Structures are given as structure tokens and as C-alpha cells.
Amino acid sequence: MRLLLVEDDDRIAGPLVEGLNRYGFAVERVRTGASALSASAADLVLLDLGLPDMDGIDVCRAVRTRSSVPIIMITARSEETDRVVGLEVGADDYLSKPFGVRELVARIRAVTRRTHPERHAPPNTTAPAFAAMLPGPAQDRPLEERGVQELGPLTIDRRTRGVTVSGRPLTLTPKEFDLLSQLASDPGAVWSRQQILDTVWDPNYFGPTRTLDVHVSALRRKLGDPAWIATVRGIGFRLTVPGDSAHD
Asked: Is the pTM of this model over 0.70?
């Protein structure tokens, strides 16, 4: 697995690269935000916020305009506001210094499980036989069998992780897509905050409590109508199709 480490402090970067190498990761290290934005593609980015040329938040925001690569922010900043802003602009996790290499590796693996579940799925030896039983090529199968879900003007393609509203493609962060996919898996059902955090984040997630609200807010904004995600006071959230009484 290829990691891009964006860290200007040699005293931190040196031991970190050495430790990650021992765990089998290939690490490319850069010192500035500009170098990070011009670096070769990686499987995951470890991004420090305190860079000499630009704020790591701006680096994260720029990366998200062109890539869905998982990003873990690593920083000495401990304020909840910094963590929330980092997550809102597209980071997948946030780790405050100081931390151990084993903790970082655990975070890397957890983020990878959430963003690339296919890498952890067992080989599907029955797939060819099952495919042979389906009627015709994939494009002739019903949308549901192709991992595509339609809810009014909303279309979710779980195979490509693509989302459109009235034919307009949306640019979602990995967490935003996972959140939408979770809510859409049972439209109209109420999902508790803890259920969502356990599924979309991690059963052992101990991040800022406002993280879920920040992502819901961003998702509502991108969907174009806050009525898509209803707040059930004291419990959690549910997905509804605006103007569709069948889902109210």
C-alpha cells in the first residue's frame, strides 16, 4: 500500500516513515503543501496541518476537488473546531500528536476498510457461476441487480460510488457517500446517531461529537434540499424524498 506523508518536521517524519515501512507500507514523504499536490498518486494521504507554505486544510480541500483518496490528518492542533473543519472539507480521520505508530496503522487499516471494502472482502469464487445465471449482459439487468438505487430524482450507484440528482452529478466525499448510502439502504427508516457512527465511521470511533452533524449538513447542501435528510429529535436521521408522501 502506497502512502503519501505530508510532514515538514524531520524529527517526526523520520521515525514515522521507518515505523510504517516496518509494517509493510511504501511511504513517499514530502515537506510542503505544494509538493503534496504535485506528488504521484497514493492509496492514502497522511496530512499534517502545520505546513510551511500553506495550511493543511487548504491542501485537503484542493485534493478533494480532484480525488477521493482517503486522507488522515495528523496534527498538534487539538481544538475540536480544527477537527470539525478538517472533516468537513473531506478528511476521513483525524489523529492528534503525539501518537504511536501502532495507533496510526490501526487508523490506516480502519479507514481503508471503510473506503475500500473490496480489499478486505474474501474471494468470491461463486461469482462466475452466479453471473452465468443472470439474464443477458450486465447492462440488461435491472438497476437493483447492478447496485443502482433510484429514489425519486436521486440515483445512487454503489458500484461506481456515483450519485446524481435529476441527472446532475454530485461530488461527494467518501464519508458523505457512505452516509447517504447508509440512509438510503432503508428509505424512511430512522437511523440512530450511534448506528450511523458505528457503520459509516467505526464502532470504536471517538472523534468529535459534531462530526455527524457536519456531514449531514454538507450532504443536505449538496443534495439541494434539506428535506432529503430529516432530523428525528433525540434519535437520529432518516432519508425522505422531498414531496413524496410515500417516504414521509
From this structure: no
d(CA 108, CA 20): 10
Phi, psi of 40, deg, nearest 5: -70, 160
Q: What's the pLDDT at 120?
A: 45
Comparing CA positions, the residue from 157, 207, 153, 202 lying closest to residue 177 is 157
Q: Report the DSSP beta bridge partners of residue 6.
A: 30, 47
* Cβ-defined contacts of 221-230 (< 8 Å, 24+): 222/170, 222/171, 222/172, 222/176, 223/154, 223/165, 223/170, 224/165, 228/154, 229/183
| CA neighbor of 76 nearest in space, from 62, 54, 56 | 56
Angle between helix axes 174-184 and 211-223 (nearest 10 degrees) is 80
List CB contacts of 48: < 8 A, sequence separation 6 or more.
Answer: 6, 7, 8, 9, 56, 73, 74, 75
Collapsing DSSP to helix, strand or coil, 30 comes out as: strand
The model's pLDDT over 200-248, given as tens digits with 9 standing for 90+, comes to 876 555 555 678 888 999 999 999 999 999 999 988 999 998 876 444 4
- Cβ atoms of residues 200 and 247 within 8 Å: no
Give the pLDDT confidence of 102-154 residue by residue, as tens digits: 888 888 988 888 776 555 444 443 334 333 334 444 444 444 445 789 999 99
User: Could you tell me if 179 and 215 are in contact, meaning their C-beta atoms sit under 8 angstroms apart?
Assistant: yes
Q: Which domains are present in the chain?
A: 2-118 (3.40.50.2300), 143-247 (1.10.10.10)
Alpha carbon distance 218, 155 (integer Å): 18
